[in-house]
Design a protein that fits this description.
The chain has about 160 residues and is mostly helical. Helices cover about 70% and strands about 0% of the residues. Helix 1 packs parallel to helix 4 and helix 4 packs antiparallel against helix 6. The two termini are about 20 Å apart.
């Protein structure tokens, strides 16, 4: 269980760093496809905030992806070490991905989007947008993620069971 919690924390850190790298440094609207339409309408296309900002952003994003990979590698390695079968791998992967989704809902959507000035710090144009109604704007996406994670985790658990048993 400790390894699962460490993996979830690694995923949370990676997820935040990915957002930070994209929003704070890369600042390309293509990364904001899941943002509320009201936000996208007022966010301008920006050049680099300073020389090298895009490079820094991409380095942060690459590190974030490595954290994701590392979290799953840690979970798999611990499963191999402890002789996990399909059900234990499935449960671990499902807990990790559901933890990530809950983090997305509570921290990104409820706190960063609706309560904090995180996005306004990087895009002052968003001050004019009423953010109070944004919580839950993407509930269909979240429901689809929760449903999609079940076969994804089953496939990953089956693969781990076949490769490492």
């Amino acid at each position: 269980m400790v390894i699962t919690i460490i993996s979830i924390l690694m995923i949370m850190l990676g997820y935040f760093l990915m957002l930070y790298g994209a929003v704070g440094f890369i600042q390309d609207k293509r990364f904001f496809s899941s943002a509320p339409k009201e936000n996208l309408a007022v966010i301008p296309d920006k050049k680099e905030r300073f020389r090298g900002a895009h490079v820094i952003g991409w380095l942060i994003v690459v590190f974030a992806v490595l954290l994701f990979i590392g979290a799953f590698a840690l979970g798999i390695w611990d499963g191999v070490r402890n002789g996990f079968g399909f059900l234990k791998y499935f449960a671990r992967f499902l807990i990790m991905l559901y933890g990530m989704e809950i983090y997305d809902i509570l921290f990104f959507d409820w706190y960063l989007l609706c309560r904090s000035n995180f996005f306004i710090h990087f895009y002052p144009e968003l001050k004019s947008v009423d953010r109070s109604h944004f919580f839950g704007y993407n509930r269909k996406e979240h429901i689809m993620h929760f449903l999609t994670y079940i076969p994804v985790c089953a496939s990953m658990a089956l693969g781990c069971g076949l490769l490492f048993s």
